[in-house]
Amino acid sequence: MRLDGKTALVTGGVSGIGKAAALEFARQGAKVIVADINQDGGAAIETEAKAAGLAIEYAALDLADLASVDACAAGVLERHGRVDILVNAAGWDRIHPFLENTSEFMDRVLAINLRGPIGLTQKLVPAMAANGYGKIVNVASDAGRVGSLGETVYASAKGGIIAFTKSLARETARYHITVNCVCPGPTDTPLFHAQPEKVKLALEKAIPFRRIAQPQELADAILFFASSRSDYVTAQILSVSGGLTMVG
Questions:
Q1: Which domain, by its residues, includes 205?
Q2: Is residue 154 annotated as a catalytic residue, yes or no?
Q3: CATH code at 120?
């Protein structure tokens, strides 16, 4: 599933699922921009990629700040002219009872997981439409499909991303832009490891494979939606959860 000649933007690309996707895209021949709030991590992945002979560059992005979102999109388009592949992989949450959520916490969860990705996508789609080509892959969560204890607002945001995927796919099909969504289950990422130990152990036991996913396993699914192998696939929601959520 080669991506030669393609330019890809991956949010949250300095760690976890985003980093795995960015590295895999670069190995498949794409020029990759990792957009992330973590500047030190951005410098580190640039160094790692250079040592491996991969084309990866860092762009600053704070999804909770719409001015940053606009500036990131404008800067990338100015430098590269277009983005062929957009992966909205960045996410943030903390396990917290809904009745104890503050307004500030809810605003931040919704901004990073829903409003920011929507804003970034809106800035990049016109260039895709003008080129008559684009691949958008949204990374939601199985929390958005079935709910998750202690993650009510996060699940709401990810459910919004799922609906955004389906609706945007209808609007952009005429421009030969596909829009699909990958829903991870528990995955070996910093976000997972920030959860209480008892929660992590309970999730591992609930997964039929009795283990959490590795970021590369999500990157493989993202690569399928980003490649020519999925040119006739759009508006689809793929759960990669080891069988944890066996629902339609």
A1: 7-240
A2: yes
A3: 3.40.50.720
